[in-house]
Amino acid sequence: MSWIESIQKAIDYIENNLLDENLTIEQISSAANSSVFHFQRTFSILTDQTVGDYIRRRRLTLAAQELINTDNKVIDIAFKYGYETPEAFTKAFRKQHGVTPSEARKKMGSIQSYNRLVIQIQLKGAVPMNYKIIEKDAFQVVGVKRTYNCQNGENTREIPQFWQDVHMDGTNDRLFALNNGEVEGVLGVCIVDENQKGTGLMDYWVATAHNGEVPEGFLSYQIPASKWVVFEVHGAMPHAIQETWKKIYSEWFPSNPYKPTGDPELEVYSNGNPSSPDYYSEVWIPIN
Q1: First-to-last C-alpha distance (Å) of the chain
Q2: Domain CATH for 278
Q3: What values do phi and psi take at 109, rounded to 5?
Q4: Which of 88, 105, 122 finishes a domain?
Q5: How far apart are CA 79 and CA 137, in angstroms?
Q6: How many other CB atoms are there within 10 angstroms of residue 123's CB atom?
Q7: How, if at all, do strands 139-149 and 186-191 pair?
Q8: What counts of helices (H) and strands (E) characterise the chain?
Q9: pLDDT digit string (tens) for 228-243?
Q10: Residue 232 dihedral angles phi and psi, to the nearest 5°
């Protein structure tokens, strides 16, 4: 089963269980035969929303349809779609649709409908993707890390702030000075360790490949030996690398026989001006 087929299978699982108040991201990612982190990450890259946002929007879309087309009580519809009180339902309903449930029933205003997702492969390729496949032994990185919840999109919102902080406090410059290992540059590293599997948590490191003792103030991590696909990225941050991630999962993986292994993935940043249209960076994904 291809990666795109796996994502679609998970979407189908969500749709078949939308009214299950106990529906979890672990169950959904299992339907895609994926870890929580990698499913949530890929889903967000492909759809520009978190799994939680998709579920909430779909439930409120169906709730609006039921309000308009039936005489069922508002309180019963609220409970049916996972809201414990009419007040909580009304607040969420107004936020999505711009009207209250009562106004929707009276057909006052319009309804914002989020339709069932269908993942499709688009035929593209006018702009080539430059990549290479390499193998590397395990290597050490040193740096700083923060832990994020990838179920609610916290990682997407907060990681840019992390990068701003390491630039402001001089950590970024220290890491470039320490770089003497297998990969040239400063790295953004996404890691889900054994204790975090199934929790929706991930560690994000700003680090560098370094041979030798761990400098004071830094932590270390051993990147496992892997076969890597390395994509070139040309352009200003963060847009260029975000677009590359989207093309990797929407175009490259569906067109190639490889799959991500679930091991740590790297964003590799060169020592230049990240706002420059000529800035060079890379995305490294371990594959099998």
Answers
A1: 14
A2: 3.20.80.10
A3: 90, 180
A4: 105
A5: 54
A6: 6
A7: unpaired
A8: 11, 8
A9: 999 999 999 989 999 9
A10: -75, 140
